[in-house]
Amino acid sequence: MVSNRDIDHAAAVLRAGGLVAFPTETVYGLGADAGNSAAVRKIFEVKGRPSTHPVIVHLADAVQLANWAREIPDDARRLARKFWPGPLTVILKRAGKVSDVVTGGQDTVALRVPAHPVAQQLLARFGGGIAAPSANCHGRVSATTADHVRREFGAAVECILDGGEAGIGIESTIIDLSGAGAVLLRPGWITADEIEATLGASLGAPAADAPRAPGTLAAHYAPRTPLVLLEGDLAVELAASLARQGKRVAVLALSAQQPLLPGLEWSAAPRDAAGYAHALYAGLRRLDEAGCDTILVERPPQAPEWAAINDRLARAAAGTFAPDDT
Ligand code: TXA
Ligand code: MG
Q1: Which ligand has the shortest distance to the CA of 152?
Q2: CA distance from start to end of the chain
Q3: How far is the CA of 112 from the centre of ligand 1 (A)?
Q4: Are 223 and 237 in contact (CB under 8 A)?
Q5: What global pTM score does this model have?
Q6: CATH numbers and ranges of domains, the chain
Q7: Per-residue pLDDT tens for 121-162?
Q8: Could you give the CA distance from residue 254 to residue 168 in angstroms, rounded to a whole number?
Q9: CA distance 3 to 302
Q10: Residues 206-246: pLDDT tens digits?
Q11: Whose Cα sits closest to atom 6 in ligand 1?
Q12: How far away, in angstroms, is 259 Cα from ligand 1 center?
């Protein structure tokens, strides 16, 4: 449980230029005072994140948008009214004062009002914007518990607010509103259909020359053990054949039934998209730590509510074979 004193302490750490890991409804964030470039630089150091990759600024409410964006299009107001506080990030043209460290030198800034009560309390107490990427080493699986954050960073993060398991479990939907039309940069729990219904317009795809963002690289969100995505029966067949060769195989199954073979690290994932997303990163971490040669993941359905999950799994699979190319 997080007490008022914990929140006071965390806000003081932020004011002093320190790092605070905090829960959001999507995943844990690794936060710093977004108005303090030296503090934000520490996030990049601790994560091992390339300095050209921008971070999201978290705000207490949509009123604060005007402090960070120089233009607030009607579409941004519509999305904010409908989805904030919540798992949605919008990209807008940045206000003059926003540091290059936050934006990775781009002319735009990513903004989000999170719904988690601990994040809300921290933002309200701190007063300013909190720059926070997901609280994991660059390119790796995001953290959905305080314990994940502790194991990821050890003593490098002086304050970790433990708000229990992150409810949604995968990162926010990112919509770029800095250009002529709205563009989906990263699928998330809020689906493209819901965004389009709110805007009354279709979403575009990112331009080929758009600045690359780490969460949108082909390789990201990756465990250290090679991860392969397969249809259910193929996952079972391959698992069985590798196990017979004496390999240690981890399986994240959805509907596939466990074959009666020794040496398999079998994990049955929830069959609904919400349950699956909630459990995904903790499950990948657990399977990664099992010390297997391979993680086989049964490919989820292609339905819209699985889009963000399929996106993360594809990048995780790519990431284990071609670790982040930046
Ligand atoms: O759910 C979330 O969004 C979590 C929680 C902590 O809020 N945060 C998160 O941050 O996932 P991060 O840094 O892991 O992913 C943010 C993504 C990155 O792919 C980053 O490059 C992109 O947002 N991004 C940030 N600023 C951007 C900008 N100005 N233009 C384009 N992409 C941007
Ligand atoms: Mg991330």
Answers
A1: 2
A2: 38
A3: 9
A4: no
A5: 0.95
A6: 4-199 (3.90.870.10), 227-319 (3.40.50.11030)
A7: 999 999 999 999 999 999 899 999 999 999 999 999 989 999
A8: 18
A9: 42
A10: 776 665 555 556 667 788 999 999 998 899 999 999 999 99
A11: 29
A12: 40
